[in-house]
C-alpha cells in the first residue's frame, strides 16, 4: 500500500476526498495515513514521516502549496505532489511543474479522476522503485561516462560557435543509452545526465539564469516518449536552444576591456546600459569606448543592448506574471508602444502574442 498525506484546510473538502470509493484498492492501493490543515503542519509531517503521495490544496495558511513543494523539493526522496484546487493560475501551475509537481486535479474531484491519478502515481512509484533497486549498477554506468571525460570535453567546447558542440552532445547522450543495463531506464539517466550538463554550464556562465530557467528541461516528465531516439532528440532540441541563446548573447570579443563590459551587461540587463553610463562605470572615455566597439566588436553596441534587454523581457514574460507595461519600465523603456514595436521586430511577435502563446497550460505539460 502507498501512503498518502492530504493537506486540506476545509473539513468538508477533506471528507469528500476520503469518501471517494477508490482508497485501498488492490496491492497497489493508496491509503491516507495523515492529514494536515495548513502548510506548517504538513511540513512537520513531511520531515518526520515518509509518504508516497501528497494531495494538497494550493491555498494554505503559513506555507501555501507551492512553498511547501519548494521546501520538500530540496530533499532527496520527495513524494509525488498533486495539487487539488478550484482555480489555479497558469503561472502558478507552470512554476509548480518546474519544481516537480506530479499532477493537478480540479475540485470537486471525481471518482474517475482520482482513480486515474492513483493508476498513474502507482506506475511512477513502481518505476522509481525499480530504479532504486538497480541504483548501484546505474551509478556505475553513469559515473563511467563522466570519468571518460566526455562531458568535460563537451563543456570545454561549449563556447565554440560551431556544430561540433551539438554533435558532441548527441554522442554523449547516445553513448549512455547503449548500455544494456539502461534499457528500461534511459529516460531517467538521460534526465540526470542532462541536468549535470546544464548545471555545469550555468555554473560556468551564471548570467544565463537571467535569460532562461535552469529547470527549462523539466517538462520531459509530462511527455509520452517510447524509445531512446525520442529522448535523445528531445534533449538535443533543448541543448540546441540553450546553445543558440548563449551564442546570441555572447558574440566574440577579442579585447579584454570589451569582455569585462560585455559580462557586466549580461549580468545587469535591467540597469541603465547607455554607452555613456557604461563608459562612466568603467572609467573610460565615451568616445574611446564607442570607437573600441566599432573596431573590435562583431556587433553594434546599441544592437547588443537591445538584444540583451529583449531576451530578458522574454524571460520575464515566460516566468513571471508582470504586466507588459511593468516589464517595459523595468528594462528602461518608458514608452511601452516603442517597446512593443522593437520587441516584435527583434523577437518576431508582439509581447502580448508571446504572452498568450506561453500561457497555454496544455502546451506546457504536453
From TrEMBL:
Source organism per UniProt: Herbinix hemicellulosilytica
Known role: May play the central regulatory role in sporulation. It may be an element of the effector pathway responsible for the activation of sporulation genes in response to nutritional stress. Spo0A may act in concert with spo0H (a sigma factor) to control the expression of some genes that are critical to the sporulation process.
Alphabetical list of Pfam families matching this protein: HTH_18, Response_reg
Residues of the Response regulatory domain: 3-122
GO function terms (MF aspect): DNA-binding transcription factor activity; sequence-specific DNA binding
Domain HTH araC/xylS-type: 259-357
Coiled-coil annotated residue ranges, if any: none
Membrane-spanning intervals of the chain: none
Descriptive protein name: Stage 0 sporulation protein A homolog
Keyword vocabulary terms for this entry: DNA-binding, Transcription, Transcription regulation
Gene3D superfamilies named among the record's database cross-references: 3.40.50.2300, Homeodomain-like
UniProt xrefs under PROSITE patterns: HTH_ARAC_FAMILY_1 (PS00041), HTH_ARAC_FAMILY_2 (PS01124), RESPONSE_REGULATORY (PS50110)
GO biological process: one example: phosphorelay signal transduction system
Amino acid at each position: 500500500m502507498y501512503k498518502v498525506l492530504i493537506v486540506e484546510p476545509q473539513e468538508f473538502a477533506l471528507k469528500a476526498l476520503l469518501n471517494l470509493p477508490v482508497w485501498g484498492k488492490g496491492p497497489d492501493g493508496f491509503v491516507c495515513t495523515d492529514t494536515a490543515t495548513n502548510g506548517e503542519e504538513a511540513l512537520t509531517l513531511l520531515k518526520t514521516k515518509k509518504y508516497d503521495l501528497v494531495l494538497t490544496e494550493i491555498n494554505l495558511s503559513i506555507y501555501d502549496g507551492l512553498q511547501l513543494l519548494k521546501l520538500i523539493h530540496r530533499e532527496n526522496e520527495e513524494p509525488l505532489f498533486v495539487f487539488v484546487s478550484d482555480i489555479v493560475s497558469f503561472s502558478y501551475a507552470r512554476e509548480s511543474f518546474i519544481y516537480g509537481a506530479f499532477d493537478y486535479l480540479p475540485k470537486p474531484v471525481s471518482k474517475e479522476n482520482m482513480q486515474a491519478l492513483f493508476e498513474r502515481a502507482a506506475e511512477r512509484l513502481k518505476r522509481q522503485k525499480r530504479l532504486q533497486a538497480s541504483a548501484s549498477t546505474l551509478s556505475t554506468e553513469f559515473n563511467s561516462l563522466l570519468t571518460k571525460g566526455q562531458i568535460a570535453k563537451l563543456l570545454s567546447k561549449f563556447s565554440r560557435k560551431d556544430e561540433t558542440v551539438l554533435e558532441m552532445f548527441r554522442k554523449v547522450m547516445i553513448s549512455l543509452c547503449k548500455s544494456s543495463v539502461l534499457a528500461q531506464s534511459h529516460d531517467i539517466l538521460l534526465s540526470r545526465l542532462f541536468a549535470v550538463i546544464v548545471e555545469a554550464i550555468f555554473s560556468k556562465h551564471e548570467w544565463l539564469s537571467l535569460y532562461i530557467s535552469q529547470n527549462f528541461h523539466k517538462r520531459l516528465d509530462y511527455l509520452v516518449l517510447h524509445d531512446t531516439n525520442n529522448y535523445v532528440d528531445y534533449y538535443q532540441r533543448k541543448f540546441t536552444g540553450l546553445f543558440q541563446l548563449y551564442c546570441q548573447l555572447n558574440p566574440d570579443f577579442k579585447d579584454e576591456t570589451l569582455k569585462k563590459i560585455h559580462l557586466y551587461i549580461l549580468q545587469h540587463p535591467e540597469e541603465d546600459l547607455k554607452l555613456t553610463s557604461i563608459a562612466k562605470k568603467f572609467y573610460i572615455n565615451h568616445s574611446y569606448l564607442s570607437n573600441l566597439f566599432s573596431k573590435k566588436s562583431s556587433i553594434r553596441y546599441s544592437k547588443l543592448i537591445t538584444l540583451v534587454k529583449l531576451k530578458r523581457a522574454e524571460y520575464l514574460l515566460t516566468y513571471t506574471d508582470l504586466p507588459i507595461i511593468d516589464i517595459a519600465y523595468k528594462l528602461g523603456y518608458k514608452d511601452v508602444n516603442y517597446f512593443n514595436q522593437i520587441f516584435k521586430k527583434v523577437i518576431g511577435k508582439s509581447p502580448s502574442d508571446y504572452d498568450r502563446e506561453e500561457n497555454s497550460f496544455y502546451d506546457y505539460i504536453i
